[in-house]
Amino acid sequence: MNQQFKVVASGKYVPSDIVTNQDLEKIIDTSDEWIRTRTGIKERRKANEEVCSDLATFAAKDAIDRYQYDLNNIDIIIVATITGEQQTPSIANVVQGKLGITRPIMSFDINAACTGFVYALDIASSLLQTKRFKSALVIGSERLSSILDYTDRNTCILFGDGAGALIIEQDDQARPSYFLNGAKPDLTDVLTVRGTIAMDGKRVYQFAVDIVEKSIINVVEQAGLKLTDIDRILPHQANERIIQSVSKSLSLPMEKFAMNIENYGNTSAASIPILLAEYMADGHQNETILVVGFGGGFTFGAAIFYI
Ligand code: COA
Fold first, then answer.
1. What are 18-77's pLDDT values in tens digits?
2. In this structure, are strands 18-20 and 5-13 parallel, antiparallel, or unpaired?
3. 176: which DSSP letter?
């Protein structure tokens, strides 16, 4: 079934506190040089007072204010997260409440780790396609600092806090969008959160390079397009070297990929919507974009749509 929607608003929120690589040098055995050359990260944000639902609400408000979107149109709220401050009420329920939406709309969370936003967008646009709903607010929000072990230099240098939001509306006139979401479960504890994040970085890296390349090729083929038809690829921001490797293997210049990892590190489900909000705020429009993500599970996903 075609998924036809238009993107009507996007927004982001990142906490004001910045943790630089130099700050991390003071608490663990690492160096700015190691982090920059191995990951591309220079700094990341750390929430102070804000919990996950605050980050999500502020990103939603940014989208609503920036595009002067009427809150009353929103029929669905989905939040992708692995760092909600509680299991229930869902973070999406809390966002609905904090936005002051009193109509009995559907709001719920999903967990697909760092691929969460791509999954959530697929779910939202599929629901819109039933025509029972007109407008969906899709958010990726993470307060990863609350699940980091600041004595583990393999993980604590990588992640940051933030949220991004997208509002989409069903539109029969829109060009069809394409999704390819999946999972390849690995039950050997390669990437887990049981209290704090634990990870075998090398194995995640190998999975990522392979799946990002395949996901891009497969979703482009499914859409009946060529790579040259895509204006920009917005990949999950986990490690700049992963994207450099994919850029090389697909013979695409790095300029084809939007990147902001140096400023925020890996914000998991929030990374793609933050990148997208910044991309649209830079004035990009009437473009065909491809988003691609991967994460714990392993999960992976890609989508082609139009902004
Ligand atoms: N500072 C300094 N040295 C560090 C370090 C740090 N923060 N973290 C690890 N090291 C050391 C290791 O202990 C190792 O030392 P050794 O050779 O003496 O044993 C050395 O650096 C190399 O470690 P290695 O794990 O081989 O580095 P790497 O090049 O694979 O980079 C990651 C590590 C984590 C940056 C990289 O594997 C990665 O990005 N993986 C993907 C992670 C990811 O994307 N996760 C999220 C998925 S959504």
1. 999 999 999 999 999 999 999 999 999 999 999 999 999 999 999 999 999 999 999 999
2. unpaired
3. P
CA of 201 to the centre of ligand 1 (A): 6
Residue of 21, 52, 114, 156 with catalytic role: 114
Give the active site residue among 21, 236, 239, 263: 236
236 is an active site residue: yes
CA distance 135 to 131: 10
User: What's the pLDDT tens digit per position in 182-225?
Assistant: 999 999 999 999 999 999 999 999 999 999 999 999 999 999 99
- The whole-number average pLDDT for the span 243-257 is 98
State pTM to two decimals. Answer: 0.97
Domain boundaries, the chain: 1-307
Q: What is the distance between the alpha carbons of residues 166 and 289, in angstroms, rounded to a whole number?
A: 14
Three-class SS state of 198: strand
* pLDDT reported for residue 2: 74
Q: Whose CA is nearest to atom 1 of ligand 1?
A: 30
Longest Cα–Cα distance in the chain = 55
CATH T-level topology, domain 1-307? Peroxisomal Thiolase; Chain A, domain 1 (3.40.47)
Q: Given the CA of residue 236, which atom of ligand 1 is nearest to it?
A: 48
Q: How far is the CA of 183 from the centre of ligand 1 (A)?
A: 24
Determine the distance separating the centroid of ligand 1 and the alpha carbon of 95, expressed in angstroms.
Answer: 36
